[in-house]
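Bumping my old thread because nobody answered last time. Still need a sequence for this structure:
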């Protein structure tokens, strides 16, 4: 996962020299940065004057950016006349970016490129008995029918989403990614997503209690959208499941709450384990809430899976290997008057799965403006983001007809299509048909 700083460094590698350079810091004074890498001799003392000194490695936000007013070639010293002296004057393994472009603009260009990039998203919507129209309001990124790639269905009893907590398409005000469709409360983990080999997944989720405050993961789904008494799943067994690894035996508690009854269970041992709790949904319970709480000890706990199903837990549910059946385009339709809704055929119990184009989440805007986001990371691919950011910067510097802008915009267009569609000719998958006739030989 590249950080915003890493995107910038890659942009410097792609276009070295004219716009910027990155060098190591030797020492820092009140209003000076010294780099032995700049003490090459022969440059005039105003060689870097009028440019910006950007310290992406410092955690002191007020020290991030300075306007260079003087350069001393003999010692490699960059001087600024800011009234705010550097409060962080340590320079261990720290670099400085010397840029002709204001760092704020570079950050915004990177954020813009991240938000312009699309990926194919897979989101499940549980079937509701007796219902033909489904709102896609929870999938806020689906704004029009053309955002949808295809629709499938399966017969999984799962009613919550993002079972493995891998989908993360938003960021918190602290700049940390948040799992889709789950609310996070008081999680003190500085890096909540950690590398794992569990079931071939990319991450596990770290749920950390600190300072005596419980941390929670919770999700709520509607149980009776039709409002008909006795409608499915009323009277059914609801089972919440968590695959976890608590650091201490009683650290995690799993609760399933319909609004009237709220049975719960805590872990009683350490090591990876499956935690389950069941409830029978009453006719007065119109929503099902699943909550995992980190309690007791101020420690980090591992969460691999968290989900709720209708019915009893079986090996088929554990395997999560339900075949998907694709619906023909004529089997579903839309209503665009208000929140986008979709008409689905009556298939029985299970879920329909919407594949759609979805943008990567940008960086938190407040942190982006202040410079605090320099160490924040994104899942967006490095090359495509750098090309998109360079196109935005050259557009601002030289206009929409400049060769530099046109080159980098073309690079971004190619890389973003390749990222979304793959190298092979899979346009039929995305558009539902070929975009042009097959080529013919001309004689």
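Sorry it took so long. Here it is:
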């Amino acid at each position: 996962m590249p950080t915003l700083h890493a995107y910038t460094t890659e942009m410097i590698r792609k276009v070295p020299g004219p716009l910027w350079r990155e060098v190591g810091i030797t020492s820092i004074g009140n209003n000076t940065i010294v780099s032995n890498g700049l003490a090459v001799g022969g440059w005039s003392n105003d060689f870097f004057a009028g440019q910006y000194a950007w310290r992406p490695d410092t955690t002191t936000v007020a020290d991030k950016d300075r306007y260079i007013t003087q350069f001393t070639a003999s010692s490699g010293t960059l001087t600024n006349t800011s009234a705010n002296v550097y409060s962080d004057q340590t320079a261990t393994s720290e670099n400085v970016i010397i840029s002709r472009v204001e760092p704020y603009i570079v950050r915004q260009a990177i954020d813009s490129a991240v938000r312009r990039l699309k990926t194919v998203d897979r989101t499940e919507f549980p079937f509701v008995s007796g219902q033909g129209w489904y709102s896609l309001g929870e999938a806020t990124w689906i704004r029009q029918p053309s955002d949808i790639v295809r629709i499938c269905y399966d017969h999984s009893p799962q009613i919550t989403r993002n079972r493995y907590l891998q989908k993360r398409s938003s960021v918190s005000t602290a700049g940390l990614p948040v799992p889709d469709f789950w609310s996070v409360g008081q999680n003190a983990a500085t890096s909540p997503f950690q590398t794992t080999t569990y079931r071939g997944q990319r991450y596990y989720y770290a749920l950390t209690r600190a300072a005596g405050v419980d941390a929670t993961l919770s999700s709520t789904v509607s149980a009776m959208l039709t409002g008909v008494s006795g409608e499915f799943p009323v009277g059914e067994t609801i089972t919440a499941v968590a695959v976890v690894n608590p650091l201490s035996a009683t650290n995690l508690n799993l609760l399933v709450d319909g609004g009237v009854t709220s049975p719960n269970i805590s872990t009683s041992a350490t090591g990876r384990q499956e935690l389950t709790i069941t409830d029978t949904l009453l006719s007065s319970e119109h929503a099902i809430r699943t909550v995992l709480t980190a309690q007791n000890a101020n420690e980090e706990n591992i969460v691999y899976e968290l989900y709720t199903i209708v019915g009893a837990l079986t090996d088929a549910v554990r395997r999560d290997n339900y075949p998907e059946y694709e619906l023909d385009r004529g089997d579903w339709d839309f209503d665009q008057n208000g929140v986008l809704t979709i008409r689905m055929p009556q298939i029985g119990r299970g879920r329909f799965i919407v594949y759609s184009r979805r943008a990567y989440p940008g960086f938190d805007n407040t942190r982006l403006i202040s410079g605090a986001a320099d160490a924040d990371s994104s899942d967006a691919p490095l090359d495509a983001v750098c090309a998109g950011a360079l196109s935005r910067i050259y557009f601002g510097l030289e206009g929409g007809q400049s060769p530099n802008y046109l080159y980098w915009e073309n690079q971004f267009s190619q890389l973003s299509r390749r990222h979304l569609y793959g190298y092979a000719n899979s346009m039929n998958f995305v558009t539902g048909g070929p975009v042009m006739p097959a080529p013919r030989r001309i004689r």
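The first helix runs from residue 4 to 14. Let me know if any region looks off to you.
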